[in-house]
């Protein structure tokens, strides 16, 4: 790892965080709800994009792959927020939303990743 790579990952991580903030704000304004749909959407989009990068960029441009996945997608996705929202739903006794989100927060992003890998596997390189 060199300083330039560290700087690029940091910059793209910041851009990912800003992108997450924008998407989160848009979704929350469109659909205010107890259920944390914005984090679910963000993490699913990040997982799908990660699957695309795995299939398209990983072996061709390893530095671009690192900058995009560790930087941009690392800043965009937020598993820690999902864990906090799961905890808050349980703490506030929103049991139905708690159970649904507990499973969807993990399964839906994984399905997004698998879907991207599947779809990207059939695209010409």
TrEMBL record:
Pfam families: CRCB (PF02537)
Reaction(s) the record says it catalyses: fluoride(in) = fluoride(out)
Residues the record lists as binding Na(+): 74, 77
Ion transport is among the record's keywords: yes
Transmembrane segments: 6-23, 35-58, 64-87, 99-123
Topology in the lipid bilayer: Multi-pass membrane protein
InterPro entries, per database record: FluC
UniProt keyword list: Cell membrane, Ion channel, Ion transport, Membrane, Metal-binding, Sodium, Transmembrane, Transmembrane helix, Transport
Compartments where located: Cell membrane
Description of activity control: Na(+) is not transported, but it plays an essential structural role and its presence is essential for fluoride channel function.
The family this protein is said to belong to: Belongs to the fluoride channel Fluc/FEX (TC 1.A.43) family.
Role played: Fluoride-specific ion channel. Important for reducing fluoride concentration in the cell, thus reducing its toxicity.
Protein's recorded name: Fluoride-specific ion channel FluC
Species the sequence originates in: Alloscardovia venturai
